[in-house]
């Protein structure tokens, strides 16, 4: 293996209150990967400084009119550009430092390429969120200090996720939390003044925006990058490890592809659609390579049908790497893709192409058709090995003619040797690849094996007599595919659920400050009915009742009764609470939407699951005659409101059933809206 820093064993965390770290974050673990990431962060700062100096020099050059000043500025600008290029080359060196990310098991295999995590700057949510809670929700923001601290701790933990499923879970829990935060605190009509800064993973150039979409996109990118690191860390000497690698690379491709299709205008180049398309191809190519390793792990038997199979598989890996290299060589990706990555893709394309020809040569040279052999099966396999047979040859005749088999096999060996030589040449042209010892050893051993086999059967005049061997058909028993992230299944408790159900208490709705109503139930009759569930609304209000005279309005949401928070209480719980006061004075706080057209609960019904329920409080009446008198007072409204209720029920029949998120109150069975429903495929980060 390469001289790589070996990850240290993670230290157990026993301290109370370190839940985030147990979930997949340990910033104190000094592993090779963490040291590499620290070097990346330091380089990002140097690149930021160089970019600022270059911008200043360019502005000065535009403004200066003195020839001597302009000449001096041009000289300084050339030095800055040279320094910036050296820093980017150093960052590229970190990107190809694959040894740190590989499995700690000694393996004679070509290293895989992981993605480094994007770095970010600290973000302080406290001032902005506190101001918004006070201004928008009219609540004491000091009561939410712990929740804001939890959010900031979770973000900080996401900067150092562990390289396993717990780390992925940590990132996804923060991504889910961002969906809640966006709905609670980020109105679509204005910026909140929180600046998010993330560094490009490939160039180190920072991107800063006041848009939460940059934060969400960067977390998704790091999730995909973490999957690539899990894939490269898998033990490729076991079937389970290789299956884990295949799964991790497919999931990485799924996350990156989802990012490409969902966040279509990301300002960071590593998250541009063109770059993400190439990264998806790279992940699928490495997954296909792991499939080949899994087939070869038990050993390749020198048997006709086994050799046919591995020849197809090797050709498949070579084909996907050729396609990857072609994609990496196209503008605009070519300018920013690490040169070492493109070189390694080319090296692997030739290497696996050479292996395909070597296995084809072995099955032709070493396996003569013997009596009792399955001639029809062998003929079918040989005919399917190529798109077309060489001119003058047929599958059955070639199988029966030992000389033809020998000559065709040697042709494959010559093509294998040519591919090996080209693979070694490409590796020698890249300084970073020359320093990966295991890569050089694998390429050299494969080349020597093909040369030795050809030397055993070489004859004078081969260069004149041999026909050119055809290409091997690329085919696999396990076609890798993108595994899309199951975002709808990700659940997390909303930190700010005390504000109330997200379907009602969100940033895109404007509220009146809470109004305090003091009233009594006249002979057990409150004078209004209730509807909805968490929160409950005032409905069918008698304009002459005590509550109406105290200022209650139809459509008001009940937020508290006698200082008992009612935002998460169900209708039956609110009813029980009101019953408990009898004819004593009741103090109730209510809020109303400023938009009167949307004040009724039906406007938020699209976030609810199930039909609305209406319960009458008239059942509290003691005297039937009095109850009749009360109901007569509002009888003129019943026909209209009943029609509206029917209409609302029709609307709720088309309710969107969104994924559930965990809440603190087990009795509040209403599902919160998924933050992922807020993602627009045409979301713009500009």
Secondary structure blueprint with pairings:
Elements: H1 19-22, H2 32-63, H3 67-95, H4 126-136, H5 145-157, H6 165-185, E1 196-199, E2 206-209, H7 212-233, H8 239-262, E3 263-265, H9 273-296, H10 304-328, H11 333-336, H12 339-366, H13 375-385, H14 395-400, H15 402-429, H16 431-434, H17 437-457, H18 462-465, E4 515-519, E5 529-531, E6 537-539, H19 546-549, E7 557-561, E8 564-565, H20 571-579, E9 586-591, E10 614-615, H21 624-633, H22 635-652, E11 683-684
Parallel strand pairs: 3-11
Antiparallel strand pairs: 1-2, 4-9, 5-6, 5-10, 7-8, 7-9
Helix pairs in contact: 2-3, 6-7, 7-8, 8-9, 9-10, 10-12, 10-13, 12-15, 15-17
Task: Describe the protein.
- By secondary structure, the chain is mostly helical.
- The chain contains 22 helices and 11 strands.
- The chain has helices at 19-22, 32-63, 67-95, 126-136, 145-157, 165-185, 212-233, 239-262, 273-296, 304-328, 333-336, 339-366, 375-385, 395-400, 402-429, 431-434, 437-457, 462-465, 546-549, 571-579, 624-633, 635-652, and strands at residues 196-199, 206-209, 263-265, 515-519, 529-531, 537-539, 557-561, 564-565, 586-591, 614-615, 683-684.
- The strands form 4 sheets. It has a 4-stranded antiparallel sheet. Strands 6-5-10 form a 3-stranded antiparallel sheet, with helices on one face.
- Strand 5 (529-531) and strand 6 (537-539) form a beta hairpin.
- Helix 10 (304-328) packs parallel to helix 13 (375-385).
- It is elongated.
- The chain starts with 18 loop residues before the first helix and ends with a strand.
- The relative contact order is 0.09.
